[in-house]
């Protein structure tokens, strides 16, 4: 897939949620002072989308954070978090695959 194909690929726009403000779409936050205003930070168990280019996330690939990762804050969208079973993340191997996901509202 070349860059032109990626730009036309149906993907999710980057969204960063801030405290007491509207979310920021399409642009990563690069200023460290602005990162302090982020509502969702990359902590163990955070669920995020893989980025396919600067402004957009993939529509099919995601990842779990295994440790606190402040270097990702403001650069990726967090759309979920593990709320129970965090110890399972420590045992995930790169050859494992997901058989079932349950989403609680």
What's the topology here?
Layout: H1 3-8, E1 12-13, E2 15-16, E3 24-25, H2 32-35, E4 46-51, E5 56-64, E6 78-81, H3 86-89
Antiparallel strand pairs: 1-5, 2-3, 4-5, 4-6
Which key phrases capture this entry?
about 100 residues; about 15% helix; alpha+beta; two-stranded antiparallel sheet
Plain-language structure description:
- There is one protein chain.
- This protein is of the alpha+beta class.
- The protein has one domain.
- It contains 3 helices and 6 strands.
- A 4-stranded antiparallel β-sheet has the order 1-5-4-6, with no helix packed on it. The chain has a two-stranded antiparallel sheet with strand order 2-3.
- A hairpin with a 4-residue loop joins strand 4 and strand 5.
- The chain starts with a helix and ends in a 16-residue tail after the last helix.
Task: Give me the Rg, rounded.
Answer: 15 Å
Number of domains: 1
Sketch the topology as an H/E string, one letter per element.
HEEEHEEEH
Number of strands: 6
Q: What distance separates the N and C termini? A: 36 Å
Helical stretch tally: 3
Mean pLDDT over the full residue set:
78
Please identify the structural class as seen in this structure.
Answer: alpha+beta
Percent of residues in helical segments?
10-25%
- What portion of residues belong to β-strands? 15-25%
**What oligomeric arrangement do these chains adopt?**
single chain
List segments where confidence is low: pLDDT < 50 over at least 5 consecutive residues: none
Overall 3D form: globular
Strand order of the largest sheet: 1-5-4-6
The major pleated sheet works out as: 4 strands, antiparallel
């Amino acid at each position: 897939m070349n860059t032109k194909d990626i730009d036309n690929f149906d993907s999710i726009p980057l969204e960063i949620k801030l405290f007491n403000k509207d979310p920021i779409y399409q642009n990563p936050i690069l200023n460290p002072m602005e990162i302090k205003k982020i509502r969702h930070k990359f902590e163990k168990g955070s669920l995020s989308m893989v980025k396919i280019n600067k402004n957009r996330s993939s529509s099919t690939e995601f990842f779990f954070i295994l440790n606190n990762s402040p270097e990702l804050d403001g650069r990726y969208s967090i759309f979920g978090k593990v709320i129970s079973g965090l110890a399972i993340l420590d045992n995930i191997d790169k050859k494992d695959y997901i058989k079932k996901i349950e989403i609680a509202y």
